[in-house]
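Sat 14:20. Reprocessing the chain from the morning session after the first attempt stalled halfway. Input below, unchanged.
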Amino acid sequence: MTEDRALVEAVLADAPGAFARLVRTYQGLCWHIVQRMVRQPEDTAELCQEVFLRVHRTLHQFRYESPLRAWIGRVAYHMALRHLERKRIDIVDLGEDDDGTAFVENVGDGFDLEGRLGQDQADALLHAAIELLPPVQRTVLTLYHLDELSIAEIAQVTGMATGTIKSHLFRARLRLRGELESRMGVTAP
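Finished this time. C-alpha cells:
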C-alpha cells in the first residue's frame, strides 16, 4: 500500500511522468479485464483509454481501502460492463438453477485432458471453449485461474458478492467441461 500511496500522491501532485508510470503499471490489467469482457480489439483499446481518463479524473477519490490494482480493475470492469449493456449484449448465463445456492470450488471428473491430447491441442481447445463463455463468466474464470486473483480480490474488482463469484466460477467450469467433453467425444460418467 505504501507504493500505491506514493504513486497516487505523485499523480495527484502532477509529478512529471507519474501518470505515465501508473498507466504502464496497470495497462496490462486493464487490457485483460476489458478484452475478456468485450472481445473486440478496437472497443478494448478505446475502453482502456476511457478507463485511464476516468482514473485520472477520479483518482482523488481513491481511499486506500483496497489496493490500487483492485480499484483500477473495478473501474475497467464496470466500464466494460456498461459498454456491453449499451450494446445489449448478454453478460451472464444464469442457467436453469438460478437459486444462487449451488456452487462448488472445483469441478473435475479425473479426466486427463493433457494425456488425451498434446498440450498445444489441449490449450487450443480450452481457449476456444473459454471464448464461448458469457463475458462475466469468462472474466471471473480468467481472473481466478489465469491472473490468480483470489475470490476476495475478484469481489473488489467486480463488486460482486463472493457467493456470486463462486456461482459464476461453478457455471463457467461446468460449461467448459461440457464443451470440452463434447468436442473430444467423451461422455461424463
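Confidence is low (pLDDT under 50) at residues 94-117.
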